[in-house]
Amino acid sequence: MSLAETKRKRVAVLGGGAWGTALAVSAHHGGRDVRLWARDPVLADEINRHRTNRRYLADVVLPPELKAFASLGDALKDASLVLSVVPAQATRAVLAEASGDLPAGVPVVLCAKGIERETGKLVSELAAETLPNTPLAALSGPSFAADVARGLPTAVTVASADADLAQDLAEALSAPAFRCYSTDDLAGVEAGGALKNVLAIAVGAAAGADLGASARAALVTRGFVELRRLGVALGGRADTLMGLSGLGDLILTCSSEQSRNFTYGATLGRGGPTIGLKLAEGVATASIAAELAKRHGIETPIIDATVALLAGESSVGELVGSLMARPVKPEDHI
Ligand SMILES: NC(=O)C1=CN([C@@H]2O[C@H](COP(=O)(O)OP(=O)(O)OC[C@H]3O[C@@H](n4cnc5c(N)ncnc54)[C@H](OP(=O)(O)O)[C@@H]3O)[C@@H](O)[C@H]2O)C=CC1
Ligand SMILES: O=C(CO)COP(=O)(O)O
To answer: What's one GO MF term for it (predicted)?
Structure first.
């Protein structure tokens, strides 16, 4: 048994949604003893009795060893590693609630992809305020929950300002079909994951409005320039944003209807109602991303257009018209 295996045996996964459940399954396949927290006792009970999470991850049979708990204290008992997998906007409250039961010194890996709407903080920044003495990391990259839960090969990045901790956690969370890389660029990994969701809404809207494959490629490419510029302004490194949690996740999310952000955009692009659609983190992140870009003096026309679309201020046609009418200029990539 490797050091990482012995050190990080008991994993608590906070969040019984699609991604929490998928990561719990993967950690189980990686040899961990996993406890999953789902705040709804009905869901926790269903997972334990029927070995399925019909609400969030239908069609996946969960391993019998995977136990769900509706009590945070029970889920966190004896944990040597914690994954926080609730939506970005809920993370502060959940970590505050968990703080009393969190064993001292146990690292928390933040798995949400977003920026806190009220504060403009990355998830690790808000977590550092809530859990000032807890070692923090983030996990992000191109990874659909359904793929990971089915054991399809997937690669992600685990980031922590402490490079040794990032490597330790990457080893602990890797599983036969789940390859984790490590980096010390926490801000870069988080910014990449958060911003790709906003751009996926834009690309989805273009697809929904039948603007064609050429428009889609242009939006992904120019959208990536915005992601990289803003990601660097938020403290990330440009090379990190070229990696799995940046370009890699942008490619995935902008090319598949499996993505909830893409689907949200496509629905808007078709002029359909968005009420009742699944969680699309880019909806909450879009306006604060545009605001942060403004504060840093960075031009983000595609993110700004996405904000206008989400606010119902402009149609896809009008936004494309204004993007196309921007002044002709050299193709800057930096
Ligand atoms: N799904 C995916 O493929 C991937 C998702 N992610 C990221 O993971 C994060 C979670 O996404 P995902 O699991 O898919 O989302 P889901 O919508 O599938 O599940 C969200 C989960 O969070 C819980 N939750 C929501 N609000 C709160 C709250 N205020 N307090 C406590 N629990 C809450 C929900 O509980 P309840 O049912 O009780 O409301 C539910 O268990 C997002 O940031 C997403 O971007 C990252 C990579 C892949
Ligand atoms: O983050 C994801 C894939 O890496 C999941 O994307 P959606 O949240 O758009 O479904």
So the answer is: glycerol-3-phosphate dehydrogenase (NADP+) activity
Which of 260, 263, 267, 268 to mutate for ligand 2's pocket (most ligand atoms within 8 Å of CB)? 260
Backbone angles phi, psi at 117, to 5 degrees: -60, -45
Nearest alpha carbon, ligand 1 atom 27:
90
Digit-coded pLDDT (tens) for 244-293: 999 999 999 999 999 999 999 999 999 999 999 999 999 999 999 999 99
DSSP 217-259: HHHHHHHHHHHHHHHHHTT--HHHHTSIIIIIHHHHHTS-TT-
Known catalytic residue: 329? no
Atom 6 of ligand 2, nearest CA residue: 259
Token pair in block for residue 90: 């809920």
Distance 185 CA to ligand 1 centre (A): 24
Q: How many CA atoms lie within 13 A of 162 on its CB side?
A: 11
How far apart CA 281 and CA 265 sit, in angstroms, is: 12
Catalytic residue among 121, 196, 294, 329: 196
Judge whether 20 is annotated as a binding position.
Answer: yes
How do residues 67-98 score in pLDDT, each as one tens digit? 999 999 999 999 999 999 999 999 999 999 99
Strand 108-110, strand 81-84: pairing: parallel
* Closest ligand 1 atom number to CA of residue 57: 18
Q: What is the rounded distance in angstroms from the CA atom of residue 139 to the CA atom of residue 169?
A: 10
The fold for domain 3-184 equals Rossmann fold (3.40.50)
Q: Please state the ipTM of this predicted complex.
A: 0.99
Query: Structurally, what CATH architecture does the domain formed by 187-324 represent?
Result: Orthogonal Bundle (1.10)
Tokens (6 digits) for 181: 């890389």
How many angstroms is it from 323 CA to the middle of ligand 1?
33
Kindly report, as residue ranges, where domains of CATH 3.40.50.720 are found in the chain: 3-184
